[in-house]
Write a structure and sequence with these properties.
Elements: E1 17-22, E2 31-37, E3 40-46, H1 59-62, H2 64-67, E4 78-80, E5 89-91, H3 94-111, E6 116-120, H4 126-136, E7 141-142, H5 150-160, E8 168-170, E9 177-181, H6 189-201, E10 205-209, H7 215-219, E11 222-224, H8 231-245, H9 250-256, E12 262-263, E13 284-287, E14 292-295, E15 309-311, E16 314-318, H10 319-327, H11 334-341, H12 345-361, E17 364-366, E18 370-371, E19 377-378, E20 381-383, E21 386-390, H13 392-395, H14 400-413, E22 423-425, H15 490-499, E23 507-511, H16 523-531, E24 543-548, E25 560-563, E26 572-574, E27 586-592, H17 605-615, H18 633-639, H19 668-674, E28 678-682, H20 695-703, H21 720-729, H22 739-748, H23 759-763, E29 771-776, E30 801-803, H24 805-810, E31 818-822, E32 827-834, E33 842-846, H25 863-866, E34 904-910
Parallel strand pairs: 6-7, 6-23, 9-10, 9-21, 10-11, 23-24, 24-25, 29-33, 30-32
Antiparallel strand pairs: 1-2, 2-3, 4-5, 4-25, 8-22, 12-16, 13-14, 15-16, 17-20, 18-19, 26-27, 27-28, 29-34, 31-32, 31-34
Helix pairs in contact: 4-17, 5-14, 8-11, 8-12, 8-14, 11-12, 21-22
The protein binds iron/sulfur cluster.
Length: 940
């Protein structure tokens, strides 16, 4: 027998060159090495030096190669020639497209800027798009946060000056128990996978709380299949158990939270329920040494959590007493909530005991001295190694804001925030809520808005209301309906514009937001709103400009299309001014740059905005002589200064050696490219934990330009800004809610977290609609972004409705069956599949897999269009009428977050139709249809 083997090159050269940039196949922003061969993308791998992914690449990231070669890429600017919704367009030049845009936008800016509504989807340049909208002068700007996870962001920032995901992370190196709530697999993809790998290798425990056991919950050591919308009730019961057992960190509460701060107890005062302050505005605590109030930051004060202060016949009590009184009530006992949450009382007690055991009996000590903001020196860092992570599952409910607040209160009571083993902030967080801007809505024709659009209100005076009390914004953000809508309400823009409520607009300008399909509630209704005409035969929403890189469903509903590039063909910055890529122990930012040039007549959307800004004479985009200030977005990234020395990128400033602060450096982008596409600056050891109170961290943050002066603060177990809204509802002050909202504001703006049933429960008959219906996001598909991707479609080309055993058996379902699913709003008929690891009253499906025929250059018979479906058809932006003459929005009443997951349905077996219902006629594709087989081979 011959022993010779054929000569095979086992390590063929993959590429001629490697270009390092940032992935954009989801929002995690991993570093990637793009291997180039013959000038084309040959292969994508993870960048091992990158702070986010350290070389790890997911299925989506490696499939980027099919994203940049997708047949659905738009090729040139388009002008609508058929009726809206038909998909009939003609290609035009960029000059023509920009002239049309300017001819629409210029008169609006000069006469009535609020007639422009400019909303963007899940893009990563909001500090830039926000600046553009501000200089246009319209109050109508926001990104996608209102329909995504603003409850999580706002709940965190109002409670502890930071939140999960982009704002913070578990201390993966030290945590011993991680509890995740409502975490879907696509959000925080590689970082959480790497973190889970790390802690599981160490033997740490993971508890997953989610009605659905997929992804991260499937690898958790313990799965808690909670009833949707009851997480807040469960968390408050855990708090009850911990308080009852005395298993809370009193020292931490005294030093770093407003637990000891005195609350005004004078019921006759317009300040009743606000925190007591001295004449310098400093919060007062009761000093145990003197029995008298003293400023909270006095280094010698010994705060008393148990005492009360009596003055002028009024007793003032510390926050902690109000908190303990509320949550020690038997209403929060495990036995009182068990049935509703779907978790036994015994199990709730067991989980509370486990949290306490790990926090207090497995305490970590790190031998690292540090000094707090009071000047007190500590010789070590004490860790409570319990950490939490949460996502949309708990926040996309009408009780989501208070649920997120409850979770943070639980973390704080355990003393497990910003300590070793706990939850840690990522720069530029922590940042106290008072250090954020407030929202602005002051319009002057021809001039910029009076400040940034989005921010954090401190009380009714900060609401965006006109003089007559009507909403200043088209989405009604920052009104009594949703006072703390920190990310706007994108899901209400189209329906409000259509209704002319609060006013009519002229032009709707959107970017990367598939609003006629998977990004909208009431999808059929939205298609109608976008195409309806008034009595004059004009479209009710007169003009729509849309920018996207792909032929998504929304394209067909626009009048003018500005085609964007793919992520490998563009400049971008992942900025500290926006949503950066920092880690808990480092500040970091990154760029994208054109590793390939577009082969189509497309332009990066941000560069188009730079051009439009100059053509419209917007101050941020023109020099004094009226000439364009920036050549394109790359020029803006390098030379824009938000304030002197602070620009979009923190690295390689000045002569190239300056970090955080420094003059613009014309070579900055080259330096980023040389460095692998990112910049990272590590936090000194003595500043790594206790960041909100750590002098060394505060000084480091000022040096990096994150703050202008140190900003130490106390965590807000009690959220005073909420109390100001309650006071208004109780009849105090000049700005009070309208009568129909008074009771609701009193209830939901409680400064201590509360739980109330999801609103849909009170608007439909739970006996008629007994089943909860949810979506999850798969690991391999980020919303609809992977829809056109030839590799990823093979993983998720269709989506059954997953049905738990109880409902499966009750309906006599068998594999291959179909079901009719009906909500108070609509009905769908879809394929079903059995899943045992599921809350017994919940059905679910993957999000955004179903497609409209004709979109994304897919075959009209593609499984996404025939077997795939959307749950969106069952959800309305307004709740069903309940006989009070009102139509309430399907949103959280504090922030306005879209309450996607409040949905209740009934389910019954149905004859199999030809395709999923409802089925819509095909829309014409402006880019034709892709080939049946798509292959990509570079080199020989
Ligand atoms: S996790 Fe997201 S950013 Fe990272 S490689 Fe995957 S798709 Fe790209």
């Amino acid at each position: 027998m011959a022993h010779t083997q054929p000569a095979i090159d086992l390590s063929p050269k993959v590429s001629d060159e490697i270009r390092k940039t940032t992935c954009y196949m989801c929002a995690c922003r991993c570093g990637i090495n793009v291997h180039m061969k013959d000038g084309k993308v040959a292969y994508i791998e993870g960048n091992r030096d990158h702070p986010v992914n350290k070389g790890v690449l997911c299925a989506k990231g490696s499939a980027g190669i099919m994203q940049v070669n997708a047949p659905s890429r738009l090729r040139a600017p388009l002008k609508r020639v058929g009726p809206r919704g038909s998909g009939e367009f003609e290609e035009i030049t960029w000059d023509e497209a920009l002239e049309i845009a300017v001819s629409w936008l210029k008169p609006i800016r000069e006469n009535d800027p609020e007639k422009l509504a400019f909303f963007t989807g899940r893009d990563q340049s909001q500090s830039f798009t926000g600046l553009w909208a501000q200089h246009f002068g319209t109050p109508n700007f926001a990104a996608h946060g209102g329909f995504c996870s603003v409850n999580m962001a706002a709940g965190g920032i109002y409670t502890m000056g930071g939140a999960f995901w982009e704002f913070g992370q578990p201390d993966w190196d030290h945590t011993k128990l991680l509890m995740i709530f409502g975490v879907a697999e696509d959000h925080d993809s590689n970082p959480i996978k790497m973190g889970l790998g790390k802690i599981k290798a160490r033997g740490a425990k993971v508890i997953g709380v989610n009605p659905i056991r997929s992804g991260y919950n499937a690898v958790a050591d313990e799965w808690v299949g909670i009833t949707p919308g009851t997480d807040g009730l469960f968390i408050l019961s855990l708090i009850h158990c911990l308080l009852k057992a005395g298993r809370i960190d009193l020292d931490y509460l005294r030093r770093y939270t407003n637990a000891p701060v005195l609350v005004n107890g004078d019921e006759s005062s317009p300040e009743h329920g606000l925190l007591l302050r001295d004449e310098d505005g400093k919060m007062l605590v009761l000093d145990r040494r003197t029995g008298k109030p003293a400023p909270f930051d006095d280094p010698d004060v010994v705060p008393d959590l148990a005492g009360t202060w009596r003055k002028a016949g009024v007793t003032h009590r510390p926050v902690f007493q109000l908190l303990a009184e509320r949550y020690l009530s038997e209403d929060h006992a495990p036995e009182a909530v068990a049935e509703r949450v779907g978790i036994s009382a015994k199990r709730i007690r067991h989980i509370a005991a486990e949290l306490a055991r790990v926090a207090f009996e497995e305490e970590i000590e790190i031998d690292q001295p540090w000094t707090d903001f009071r000047g007190v020196k500590h010789d070590k860092m004490i860790g409570r190694p319990v950490s939490f992570h949460a996502m949309r599952g708990i926040s996309a409910h009408s009780n989501g804001f208070q649920t997120c607040r409850a979770l943070h209160v639980l973390q704080i009571l355990l003393g497990s925030v910003e300590v070793p083993g706990g939850f840690r902030f990522k720069p530029p967080y922590p940042k106290p809520v008072a250090a954020h801007p407030k929202p602005h809505c002051g319009v002057t024709p021809g001039k910029p808005l009076d400040g940034p659009h989005l921010g954090y209100v401190q009380g009714p005076d900060d609401l965006c209301l006109k003089d007559d009390g009507s909403p200043a914004r088209i989405d009604k953000a920052y009104t009594w309906e949703n006072p703390m809508s920190a990310h706007g309400l994108m899901h209400m823009v189209i329906s409000n514009a259509y209704a002319g409520d609060p006013y009519k607009i002229d032009t709707l300008f959107m970017y990367m937001a598939n609003m006629s399909w998977n990004s909208s509630m009431n999808t059929s209704g939205v298609m109608k709103m976008l195409t309806d005409k008034d009595e004059n035969g004009d479209y009710v929403i007169p003009r729509i400009i849309y920018s996207d890189a792909y032929s998504s469903e929304m394209v067909a509903y626009a009048d003018l299309i500005l085609p964007d590039t793919t992520y490998l063909e563009r400049h971008d910055c992942i900025s500290l001014l926006d949503r950066p890529i920092c880690e808990a122990d480092a500040a970091a930012d990154a760029i994208r740059w054109p590793v390939i040039e577009p082969d189509r007549d497309v332009r990066g959307f941000q560069s188009v905005l730079v051009d439009l800004g100059a053509r419209l004479g917007m101050p941020a985009f023109v020099n004094e002589d009226g000439s364009a200030k920036y050549k394109d977005y790359a020029d803006y990234i390098v030379n824009h200064e938000r304030k002197p020395g602070i620009g979009p990128l923190a690295g390689f400033r000045g002569d190239g050696s300056e970090k955080g602060r420094g003059a613009p450096n014309p070579d900055q982008l080259d330096r980023y490219i040389e460095n692998g596409g990112f910049f990272v600056e590590h936090i000194p050891d003595e500043a790594l934990y206790y960041k909100p109170w750590n002098q060394a961290y505060q000084d480091w943050a000022v040096g990096m330009g994150l703050y202008d002066s140190p900003q130490p603060y106390l965590f807000s177990l009690y959220a005073e800004p909420m109390r100001r809204f309650q006071l208004a509802a109780e009849g105090h002050g000049d700005r009070q809610p309208p009568e129909h909202l008074r009771e609701r504001v009193k209830t939901v703006m409680d400064p201590l977290p509360i739980w109330y049933p999801p609103f849909e429960d009170g608007h439909v008959d739970p006996e008629e609609f007994p089943v909860h219906a949810l979506t999850q996001r798969p690991m391999a598909m980020y919303h609809s972004w992977g829809t056109q991707n030839a590799w990823l479609r093979q993983l998720h080309g269709r989506n059954p409705l997953y049905v738990p055993t109880k409902i499966w058996e009750a309906n006599g379902f068998a594999e291959g069956d179909w079901a009719r699913v009906t909500s108070a709003h609509g009905s769908i008929t879809v394929p079903v599949a059995h899943m045992a690891a599921l809350n017994e009253n919940t059905v679910w499906t993957w999000n955004a897999i179903g497609k409209r025929k004709g979109a994304w250059a897919l075959d009209e018979h593609a499984p996404e269009a025939t077997k795939g479906f959307l749950l969106n058809h069952l959800i309305h932006e307004l709740l069903p009428p309940k006989g009070d003459g009102m139509r309430w929005t399907n949103s959280d009443p504090v922030t306005g977050q879209a309450a996607w997951f409040d949905l209740r349905v009934k389910i019954e077996k149905a004859a199999a139709p030809e395709e999923s219902q409802p089925a819509y006629p095909a829309i014409k594709s402006p880019v034709g249809q892709g080939p049946a087989n798509l292959a990509w081979k570079v080199g020989k």
